[in-house]
Design goal:
Layout (H helix, E strand, L loop, with lengths): L7 E5 L10 H10 L4 E4 L8 H11 L2 E2 L2 E8 L2 E8 L6 H27 L6 H8 L6 H10 L6 H9 L14 H10 L3 E4 L11 H7 L4 E5 L5 H14 L2 E4 L20 H12 L6
Parallel strand pairs: 1-2, 2-3, 6-7, 7-8
Antiparallel strand pairs: 4-5, 5-6
The structure holds zinc ion (2 copies).
Length: 282
Amino acid sequence: MDAPNGPCDLHLHSHYSDGTLSPEELVSFSASIGLSAVSITDHDTINGQAEALEAGARFGIEVVPGIEFSIDDGGSSHHILGYCFDHEDAALSTAVAALAAQRIERAREIARLLSDRGMAVPFEDVLAEAGKGSVGRPHVASVLYKRGYVSSVPEAFSRWIADGAPCNVPKKTLPLDEVVGLVRGAGGVAVWAHPGWNVKKDDLLDRFVAAGVRGIEVWHPNHSERIVEALSAAARDRGLVMTGGSDYHFAEIMQADIGEITAPRDSLVALRRAAARGPYLP
Ligand SMILES: [Zn+2]
Ligand SMILES: [Zn+2]
């Protein structure tokens, strides 16, 4: 379906992070329901981008390169979306490869801690659970469950591997300025993902903007109408780009279906303009 001015879903996850669909499936479905553009924003990886761009050309829908990074800001965790970057940029590719290596090391360390407590969690089984996706705690949890050490996946988390549980190993994340630097260095633009009421917190937005964040994700399944209003006002006040999307992972845990939460076409135009403007000088 040709929808040159149709809405855009700028927040989708594929099986390269923790979704279940391939980039091609996400892109072809999005084209079939009349979206004009999509972005696959997998956690800490750009492995699905080339496939998504190729599918976009085939199904006649624009594909915007995307990624979702986790950052640690003085003990609280936030997500930053990157858009419109060169998906072949060397520095960005090196950085995400390092993050992938750290994820594997972390999962291996968690498996080792569990083995020390008498629960055999073969690392090959953990990798097999992850498939093409980024390996992480959910995969360790399903091995624990399948081997009968716990009676459910949630129990695997609460007893053993949740934050603060005996066999967890904290995740390493990049600091905000490094994430923004990588995205901008690759010609892209950084957006604060689903801020919710955090937008009202102290000087958080000020600091994010000072670090070079140029947009706010306004439309998201976790945002009530009141939050959308607050975020729109904050974006307008500071001249930030407003983006949005369904944050779709897979049907079983979806809060919104693909294309159910979208950003208007103008958002994409504004994102491109912000990316083209280059490094932000306060
Ligand atoms: Zn997120
Ligand atoms: Zn997400």
